[in-house]
Every structure is written in structure tokens, then in C-alpha cells.
Amino acid sequence: MRNKFLTSPFFIFLLVLVLIWLTVALGRELYNRYQIHKRIVQLEKEIEKIEEENQSLSQMIEQFNSPEWLEKDARLKFNLAKEGEKVVIIHQPAPESFTDENLKKEEQLQLKNMSNPEKWWKFFFSKSD
After folding, report:
1. Which of 91, 88, 69, 92 is CA-nearest to residue 79?
2. In this structure, are residues 63 and 69 in contact, taking their beta carbons and an 8 Å threshold?
3. Which tens digit of pLDDT belongs to each residue from 44-82?
4. What average pLDDT does range 2-29 have in this prediction?
5. How far apart are CA 34 and CA 123, in angstroms?
């Protein structure tokens, strides 16, 4: 009788169901492990990136705290000079073509060359600065 039960279609059907259930469970577990491994690799890369940024920021802090950099920054921002140094300021005037007087002269010349209706058109419809 025992031999008959092991070869019965009902037992084989139950065995197939258990096998399918185990296969699905194993597949889910393997997929979860794969996802966890993928996330671990991603987090390790982020850790490396943050450590590099941290190292870079530490180097910048060291550089900014150095006396040479502080002196250079003070000279640039506050126009400071050491004792005995002379400061020379070179003033460069604007080019003549961009001065207000030259622009007004050019505009007056253009107005002289326009006809009266063109002047009225410009007066009413041109954008004023």
C-alpha cells in the first residue's frame, strides 16, 4: 500500500506543487540577494565619492588657513599693502566711441539726415531709453 501511495497521481501532484513552491521561494531569495548586493556596491561607490570630497575639502581648509593665502586674499579684497610698498593705480579712460557726447553727436547727425515724417515716426513709435 505504501508503494502504491508513492506512485499515485495525487502524491506526484503534491510533489510537483512543493517543488514549484520551493523553486519560486528560491528565486525570490536569489533576486533579493542580488538587489541587496547591487545596493551595497552603489553605497560603496557613494562612500568613496564622499571620502574624496571630504579629502578635497580638508585640503582647501588647510590652504585657506595658510598665512600666504590669507595675505593674498587681504591684498586683493581690501587693497592692503605691506609697509614700504607703493601702490600704483592705472586709470584707463573709456574709449571715445562709447562716451555719451559721441553718442549724442551721432544721434544728432542721424536726425539731420532724416525726413520730417521719419522724425515724427521715430518720436511716436521708437522705444525710448
Report:
1. 88
2. yes
3. 999 999 999 999 999 999 998 888 888 888 888 887 777
4. 90
5. 75
Q: Helices 9-65 and 67-78 sit at what angle, rounded to 10 degrees?
A: 70
**pLDDT value of residue 30:** 97
Q: In this structure, what C-alpha cell is assigned to residue 9?
A: 497521481
How far apart CA 86 and CA 80 sit, in angstroms, is 10
List the grid coordinates of 63.
590652504
Cell triple for residue 69? Answer: 593665502
Confirm if 108 and 102 have CB atoms less than 8 A apart: no
C-alpha dihedral, 22 to 27 to 32 to 34, nearest 10°? 140
The 3-state DSSP class for residue 113 equals helix
Cα separation, 128 vs 117, whole angstroms: 18
